[in-house]
Amino acid sequence: MTNKKGFYSGLLFLLLLLSPSLHADEGMWMLGNLSKETRKTMKELGLRMPVDQLYSQKKPSLKDAVVSFGGFCSGVVVSEDGLVFTNHHCGFSSIQQHSSVKNDYLKDGFVAHNRSEELPNPELYVRFLLRTENVTRRVLKAVKPTMTETERSLAVDSMMMVIGSEVSAKDSTLTGVVDAYYAGNEFWLSVYRDFNDVRLVFAPPSSVGKFGWDTDNWMWPRHTGDFSVFRIYADAENRPADYSPENVPYRPEYVAPISLAGYKQGSFCMTLGYPGSTERYLSSFGIEEMMNGMNQAMIDVRGVKQAIWKREMDRRDSIRIKYASKYDESSNYWKNSIGTNKAIRQLKVLEKKRDAEAVLRRWIQSRPEEREKLLHLFSSLELNYKNRREANRAMAYFGESFINGSELIQFALTILNFDFEAEQKQVVAQMQNLLDKYADYDVDMDKEVFAAMLKEYREKVPEKYLPDVYQSIDTLYSGNVHAYVDSLYAHTEVKSSSGLKRFLERDSTYNIVDDPAVSLGIDMIVKFYEMRSQVAEASANIEKDERELNAAMRRMYADRDFYPDANSTMRLSFGTISSYSPYDGAQYNYYTTVKGILEKAATYKGDPDFAVQPELLELFTSRDFGRYADEKGEMNVCFISNNDITGGNSGSAMFNDKGELLGLAFDGNWEAMSSDIVFEPEVQRCIGVDVRYMLFIIEKYGKATNLINELME
To answer: Roughly what angle, to the nearest 10 degrees, separates helices 407-416 and 443-460?
Structure first.
């Protein structure tokens, strides 16, 4: 007989762990699919603006002020002439590309005092969401009961592409993208308009935008002014256009109003942006694989690579500028992986997931119709994750060591995938993108990195997963990795832009497949596909099982409001400004001030991560904060809310109850680094930079009165 007390307490546990609607502050909600219950909860928490002003397909709404920034971050339109606020780390690559030892915009910041000084960024774009549409029925019509999982996947992918392409066929200025939701149980079309002329307008110095660097990354209390300013340009008719001196500032549908009123403990706060990906509904088997595979590979391999980069960056300004953006991106996910694995263990996430799955198993067993379909669901998940465990882990280390390791190998792989048959505009863009990468490349440092990658990979995986290059090293170079690397770099043409040009110009005297780096790239591709074929069957079964697990959870709580995992589409999260207790005996306030900057600069004197220019220190100590001060006369720097965010939310607008801008989300906190897997309401916080601090830096440090007048008019 079932233990009713244990069964119902287990149900409650599962509800706490898996049902998003239980916590008012949990959830990354689809704006075009907000339920009555979610709307009601927002109002109860303090939302004052009408909910229908958040999203509308027929009239301007708040979503029209929010952009996907470059496809990897978020941003918000804040002026009638197309100014966009985003994070400093989101604009970091663009800032770096314009920097040199002479004009060190990374270190000193950048300000355009007029439109002619604004700097173009050819690879950058912003994306506006116009509408969303549920196309699940249409996509799944292509699926037949007799299909294998591979056949199903191909049919679904094809239908997604067809539906998306229909949008641009009707209007060439639009892009249609169909994304999977709820592990592939639902499909929604998003219609976007992209603008490709985006120019740098303002960047604070790194002592503001990166204050604390790796030491403070993912930490609270935080004092980082993580913001930058760009402007969108369009043609004379306000339509998307490639860069041209004739383009004019974009006139937006909706401009986010800026609030100087600040916030208090318990104030309503909502975040709107493009979160990357979460795995809230992933099985315990998937979480364990993530920990030991992808996360651990990032921790091990990137730690080795970054140590080499950092050493040389600290020695030479030229290397610091070339590698600043690459190091920043790499180290961000490296530290995230460290924190995620630590949080999974400390918060006992695996144990909680397993307990929740045990309850779901009992629910399945108690219903004949579910038992008939899902009797072997968990045994299948366990078996298939076990079958691909070793090869999947090797693939994770392979990706980090080679595909994401040496830049020489990345160049070779790019050449092998170069598409000369694409449209002329795309071919030219591909060429320029490749050539630009050489401008930020250091051969000698990359040689050291590649040698280290070869050693690290060999130490971490079984011998059967070694590509053929290791046999060459052992037989031709007596196992001397450095001798092999020296020979490789000495004989390849790919290490320089002149060699690349021979390939791009179709030089008939240059046989690309004979180049040792390209030949190595082919060797790597062969080995990677060999490993992928080994896990193909297990992976297909896992995809099916995880989809069925997700659907079963939603059936179990059919009366509940489930939000889908993040997938780089626009989402809304909401909650309140909230302090928190990270551990027994400690309490963290909900905001920080410039006083903390002065304290850290003094405490870590001599540490470049906390160095601050004398003119900034003078600004802070003068306490002349003017209209940007809070009611106590203090200058707030950062604040926290219990809004639910993840990677990709960087640059997301944080709004108050009236839809006014309070600041920009830029980070999560160390105590809740497992947030991509499970929401922890007591400790999970979204860290934002206060818009008042941003304006203070623009006006007082940047002396950009032109921008202040535009923003505050």
So the answer is: 90
Q: What are phi and psi of 213, to 5 degrees?
A: 40, -135
What whole-number distance in Å separates Cα of residue 287 and Cα of residue 17? Answer: 14
Could you tell me the pTM of the whole model? 0.91
Helix (H), strand (E) at residue 374: helix 368-374
Instruction: Tell me the CA distances in angstroms from 539 to 241, 289, 373, 386, one per residue in order.
Output: 42, 12, 20, 11
Q: Which one is catalytic: 23, 88, 89, 223?
A: 89
Q: Is the dihedral of CA 206, 208, 210, 215 positive or negative?
A: positive
The model's pLDDT over 691-709, given as tens digits with 9 standing for 90+, comes to: 999 999 999 999 999 999 9
Q: Is 226 a catalytic residue?
A: yes
Residues 355-393: tens digit of each pLDDT: 999 999 999 999 999 999 999 999 999 999 999 999 999
How many whole angstroms separate alpha carbon 275 and alpha carbon 189? 17
649 DSSP assignment: -
- State which amino acid sits at residue 375: L
Long-range interactions of 481-486: CB distance < 8 A, separation 24+: 481/451, 481/454, 481/455, 482/451, 484/454, 485/447, 485/450, 485/451, 485/454, 486/447
Contact 223, 211 (CB under 8 A): yes
Catalytic residue among 25, 226, 565, 657, which?
226
Query: Which position among 650, 652, 674, 675 bears the catalytic label?
Result: 650
Cis before 221? omega within 30: yes
